[in-house]
Design a protein that fits this description.
Blueprint (H helix, E strand, L loop, with lengths): L17 H17 L6 H9 L11 H4 L5 E5 L5 E5 L2 H11 L6 E5 L4 H10 L4 E6 L2 H13 L6 E4 L15 E6 L12 E13 L2 E10 L2 E4 L4 E2 L15 E4 L4 E4 L11 H5 L4 E10 L5 H10 L3 E6 L17 E6 L2 E11 L7 E9 L3 H18 L7 E6 L14 E3 L3 E6 L20
Parallel strand pairs: 3-4, 3-6, 4-5, 6-7
Antiparallel strand pairs: 1-2, 7-8, 8-9, 8-10, 9-18, 11-12, 12-14, 13-17, 14-15, 15-16, 16-17, 18-20, 19-20
Helix pairs in contact: 1-2, 2-5, 8-9
Bound molecules: S-adenosylmethionine.
S-adenosylmethionine binds next to strand 2, strand 3, helix 5 and strand 4.
């Protein structure tokens, strides 16, 4: 989530800037095509046609056409609660949605600009509905859509958790594009059979934008997810981090999926130096390993995400997880967590690291070994896979999971999400980038 306390002044670009805007728009589209985010003529045409700056009058032209988000609304504490998403991500998600002329499309999370791209894709006989919980966002979107000639886009103010009567067309939408971080997928019934749903789905706090096709009432992913971050879902679908603080340590553990475990007794465990279990499995300094952490989240009961106060907590966690929460498991009064240890510069000069497991507490070494075994299992069997197959079935149609902790099943309110890792050993990928799974 991006935080900012500064709000840019509202300025309307003078008409003399229009030629500049067109040039900047084509420059941006060229850049997105060269980087592989634009892959079809239809998406290319949409991005070259719609005046993005008309939906972001508060920022200068070059900012509107930068390959970055434009924050448009903040909460009182400065958190961004609405934005125009980054163009690379919009292009990737539009491509993943596979929108065709005449389609009926629902956009969840509004702003106006992305809805116009959708309107270009569906053409004059298609239909786009854009829906947002925040009336200030829908007011603004409706105004800009009218000013730019896209007033045929239907704008609805509602909590997406419960789509209002009359919004869903007979037979369902051909595509649903969700542009807000979501913990669940309550929209399966609103999607036509064979339709596409693209959503940034949270699994234990990891979020990937995933493209699904609806087949026999379930959603099936069939291409690499996009690593991305969106503003948080508000309303009835807002998720709970289930965050617990280990007393006196500055260490926080979150069970966004799964049942929180007691943490008070971990204070003693964290007061001592950890055991270190080596895996001999390496990772490059610029190589993302979110696939491994998602794998661990599904494979290990008691999995949680660990973060430390910015001042470094109690100093025992060395190195503390930076940038985003790390992977950990709790076993009674003990805890293990995934860390990396620098081995050297690596071939590319970005550093070469080894995955190691730190164990805290009386059984910490056993928890660390348990985690290390799963890291090795992932390396042996799944690291070479670009991404897992993810399936979302309506919860009502599924037998309940045997336990809260059944591996690789994430039980949500409306859906049961299965993460299925294809067997592709990691030998070739040992020191190299895993490719487009981490395009973000
Ligand atoms: C990233 S912005 C949407 C970006 C937009 N699609 C664009 O043109 O780039 C996410 C939006 O989701 C909205 N939102 C958050 N929770 C929601 C909910 N429960 N139902 C509908 N909209 C929601 C926010 O108000 C925010 O405007």
């Amino acid at each position: 989530m991006t935080r900012s306390t500064e709000r840019p002044a509202v300025t309307t670009p003078p008409t003399t800037d229009l030629a500049d805007a067109t040039a900047l728009r084509h420059q941006l589209a060229d850049q997105l095509a060269a980087a592989g985010h634009i892959r079809t003529p239809a998406v290319d045409h949409a991005l070259r046609t719609v005046p993005r700056h008309a939906f972001a009058p508060e920022v200068p032209l070059h900012t509107a056409y930068a390959n970055d988000i434009v924050a448009t609304r903040h909460s009182d504490d400065g958190t961004v609660i609405s934005s125009i998403s980054a163009p690379w991500l919009q292009a990737d998600m539009l491509e993943a949605a596979r929108i065709q002329p005449d389609h009926r499309v629902l956009e969840i999370g509004s702003g106006g600009y992305n809805a116009t791209l959708l309107a270009e894709l569906v053409g004059p006989n298609g239909h786009v509905t854009t829906l947002d919980i925040d009336p200030a966002v829908t007011d603004r979107a409706a105004r800009f859509l009218a000013q730019t000639g896209y007033d045929h886009v239907r704008v609805v103010t509602a909590d997406a958790e419960h789509l209002p009567a009359g919004v869903v067309p007979d037979g369902g939408f051909d595509a649903i594009v969700v542009t807000v971080d979501t913990w669940d997928l309550p929209w399966i019934d609103a999607l036509a059979e064979g339709g596409r749903l693209v959503a940034p789905l949270r699994l234990h706090g990891y979020h990937w934008a995933i493209g699904f096709t609806k087949d026999e009432g379930a959603l099936h992913s069939d291409e690499s997810p996009i690593v991305c971050g969106f503003v948080a879902m508000q309303g009835a679908g807002a998720w709970h981090t289930n965050r617990r603080t280990v007393p006196g340590t500055g260490v926080h553990l979150s069970w966004e999926d799964g049942t929180p475990l007691p943490v008070d007794q971990l204070a003693t465990a964290l007061a001592h130096e950890p055991t270190v279990t080596r895996t001999h499995i390496t990772v490059g300094g610029q190589e993302p390993f979110d696939a491994l952490t998602l794998y661990l989240a599904g494979a290990l009961p008691g999995f949680c995400r660990l973060e430390v106060d910015p001042d470094g907590g109690n100093g025992v966690l060395n190195p503390p997880p930076k940038h985003w929460p790390g992977a950990a498991i709790v076993r009674g009064d003990s805890l293990a967590r995934l860390a990396t240890e620098r081995l050297g510069d690596g071939d590319d000069g970005n550093g070469l690291y080894e995955f190691v497991l730190h164990g805290h507490g009386t059984h910490g070494h056993l928890a660390a070994q348990e985690m290390a075994e799963q890291v090795r299992h992932w390396q042996r069997n799944h690291r070479g896979a670009l991404c897992p197959r993810i399936t979302a079935r309506p919860a009502a149609s599924c037998a309940p999971a045997a336990t809260d902790h059944e591996p690789h099943v994430f039980t949500k309110n409306y859906t049961r999400i299965t993460v299925d890792w294809p067997i592709v050993p990691g030998t070739a990928a040992l020191l190299t980038d895993r490719g487009s799974c981490n395009a973000g």
